[in-house]
Amino acid sequence: MAKSSQLPPIDGLLDLACRDGVDIRPTLLRVVTDLYVQKASHTAEEERQYVELATGVVDAVDTATREIVTATLRAYAAAPAAVLHKLTGEAPAPVKPPAAAAARDELTEMFMTARPDERRLILANLVPDARPMRRASPETLADLERAALQRDQTAFSRTLAAALGVAPALAERITRDTSGEPLVVAAKALGMSAAVVQRVLLFLNPVIGQSIARVYDLAQLFDEVTPEAAAQMAAIWRAPTHIIDALTIPIRTVEDKPITDIMVRDLNTLSSSSCTPLPKD
Predict the structure, then answer these.
(1) Pair 40, 259: CB distance under 8 Å
(2) Residue 154 belongs to what domain range?
């Protein structure tokens, strides 16, 4: 959906909240919902906050507002089922795999099964977006290098899964891939230095390490691929949130502040206010 360039000023709406007996909770619910659907996807925390604020005021809004918000959410692929249930009283539909997740899995499989030249072509044609880069901590990078030097593919794979936030099975495929491009992409995405990458390539996978020409070729790819392209591919590989949360290797990431922080606070205040709800039709 296209982003609106002119959103109603929230502070101004709050100033009018209880003035002259006007209840603006219906307006605020519509504004918050419009903001929510402008993003293609949300973090678990963003969804939790939106569900909390929306379900907290639904009972205080009129029928017309319910219908507007319901129509907006039904047109949004990632609409929270709890909010729709609260709005309509209908039981949530069975959960289907999100289209974005299916596309991610398809792209991952395409890259992992491609020939070396095809993998380079995929990387060259990635269009990076503005998502934060997931860089590993120095301690994690040291753990990866140590596992590689010890030729411990199991330890390397386990650490890689946590650092990248990918499923363990995919981390295993990246580690044991005999061509090496996925490993180069992972190293670039995590912020590994060129010198460390060369040592990892020489020791981790004997199929790669026994060919100096192959190691040299992959080192060149490491220099050529941009951090943004590597981060984009790593994001495509990314595991579902519940898998990432279960992994405890320390990583350093940049978090976006949820867009609904201030609105949760403000709407919770309004929900407990003495404003008289608008009559329901």
Answers:
(1) no
(2) 133-252
